[in-house]
Amino acid sequence: MGSCLSSSGGGGSRRSLHGSPHVPGPGRRKRPPKRRPGSCSSSFDNTEEPLLHRIPGRMFLNGSTDTVSLFSQQGKKGPNQDAMIVWENFGSMEDTVFCGVFDGHGPYGHIVAKRVRDLLPLKLGSHLESYVSPEEVLKEISLNTDDRKISEDLVHISANGESRVYNKDYVKDQDMIQMLIGSIVKAYRFMDKELKMQVDVDCFCSGTTAVTMVKQGQHLVIGNIGDSRAVLGVRNKDNKLVPFQLTEDLKPDVPAEAERIKRCRGRIFALRDEPGVARLWLPNHNSPGLAMARAFGDFCLKDFGLISVPDVSYRRLTEKDEFVVLATDGVRNIQAQCQNKCGLVSSFS
User: Fold this and answer.
1) Which domains occur in the chain, in start order?
2) Are the C-beta atoms of 187 and 107 separated by less than 8 Å?
3) Which of these, 103, 204, 287, 323, has the minimum number of CB atoms within 10 Å of its CB?
4) DSSP run (H or E) holding 313
């Protein structure tokens, strides 16, 4: 299980991190794997990883700074397939931070999660450098607000193929918001295409969730696919810290997700020994049984209702918003966990 906690304050000096990555010294470079005939080339070269891990402000191991903290711990079921990242001064922009948590699944889920951790921020950063018009965003995501609870401070848009943004009257600095939202949507789309081109990672029956956050000043934009969560610690009217969930678990039995899956001939049912866990199955085979409706990778299901287009939400932060917790589903009872973190954070403030 893994989690990433970020306060809403500005940047700070870094404390020493446990387990700093080892950067190999000069020596003979390994040959890149042979490409399959006719395969497309990837824009990500594994030989760049040591340089990537040395970028100032970029953290991916257990540790903390004055404003962020990362922690991951292996559970009892096999290898730890979680990955996480915090990137302060993201895109060389002051008061901007990128955070992400990725929960891999399948035989190579741990590799997919790390690959997305490394590549998705680079994709996002490149899109932030160019303006994304509202018209382009409309082509990427669609309004889907059935059965959702929306606060007046939260603008929620959902992805299902096409898009529009609603409640614009609540959003200030609209150009900035559109840039962040459009960049996240495009980065997710290109990320999945990139995975399909990878020759050294089998993503056919392996994939990962993703919950990512970009905070720029008072602007907070969340992108989500799968069932990892983002929770905000907020001061209520009694000045007590309470959790506010920013994301929805995108499970196959969520009505809007189920409608799309059935339209694409995918099947949804739970196993007898897990009656409460709806899973996504191929039309004619009882496999792979994915317990989410959106994910990176898992290309065996991409023609049958599984998508990698993110659910995106925006919130304008106020002085009552203390911090955000991003966590995988391995952190059980996230609301209770967040309440514990609220007490922990407040005790140090």
Assistant:
1) 2-6+50-250+307-348 (3.60.40.10)
2) no
3) 287
4) strand 311-316
